UniProtKB/TrEMBL annotation:
GO molecular function: oxidoreductase activity
Site annotation Lowers pKa of active site Tyr: residues: K84
Species, as recorded: Paenibacillus xylanivorans
Name listed for the protein in its UniProt record: Glyoxal reductase
Protein residues bound to substrate: H117
Amino acid sequence: MTAQHLQSTVVLNNGVHMPWFGLGVFKVEEGSELIEAVKQAIAHGYRSIDTAAIYGNESGVGQAIAEALKENNLKREDLFVTSKVWNEDLGYEETLAAYETSLNKLGLEYLDLYLIHWPKAGKYKGAWKAMEELYKAGRVKAIGVSNFQIHHLEDLMQDAEVKPVINQVEYHPRLTQVDLKAFCENNGIQFEAWSPLMQGQLLDNPVLTEIATAKGKSVAQVILRWDLQNGVITIPKSTKEKRIVENSSIFDFELFNDEMDRISALNEDVRVGPDPDNFDF
C-alpha cells in the first residue's frame, strides 16, 4: 500500500512500524548545518532519521534529536532512528562495542534500526550474531543490512536466527536492482533506497523532466514518488529547509502506471556508489 502522508509507516517482518520516508545525513559534517537540517526535518513532520558510524555525525544528530523533541513536544518513541556498524567493527565483540559507541554519541537508550553497513567477506556473520543478541535483549527494535546482494543474504540467512527486516541499497531509476528487490520481497525483507536521486545526476533527465512538468512537480519529487509507489522506503539527503520540505511534498499526486514504467525503463545498472561485491574497506 502506498504511503498516504509523511508519517505513514510500513510494518516490518518483526511487527515494528517504520516510516516510509525519512532524512538521510550521509556526508553532512558535524556542526550547525547538520543540527539545523535534522531539526528542520523533524519540525516539518519527518519522523525517521538515518545516520551511520562512518558518517562521523552521530553526536550532532543526537543533539538535534534532543533539541527537536523538546521544541516540538515529541517523545523519543515518536522518532525512528537508524545507524549502521562500519566494516572495521564487524565481528561479534567489535559490533557489540560499536553499538554502545553509537548509542553514546547519539545520546539514546536504544536504536529503532541497526544495520550492517557493507557485507565484508568473512566478517558479517559475527556481527549479525551480536546484533541478534542486542535485538533479543530489547536494546534495538529491529536489525537489518545494507548493500547486501542476493548471495550475501542467502549466506547470512543460512545461520541467522533473526531474519533481516531491511536491505538498504543504492536504488534509483538508473539502478533498479530488479532481481535483488524481488528476492527481498519474496523473503519478507523490506527494500530501502539510499542515494534515491543519484546524487543529483538525474535532475535534468528528459523523461523525468517531462513527467515532472506534466505533474507540476520537481524531478526530485517524481523520483521519490516513484520509490514509494514501488514499495521502497526512501531517505533523501538535504541540508536546506526548502529542499527538505520539497522532498517530502509528494503525497498530493500519483504517478500513472505508464509513467512508472517509463521511469523504470531508465535503468542501466549504473552505480554512483561502490559495487558491494568489490568493496573492501
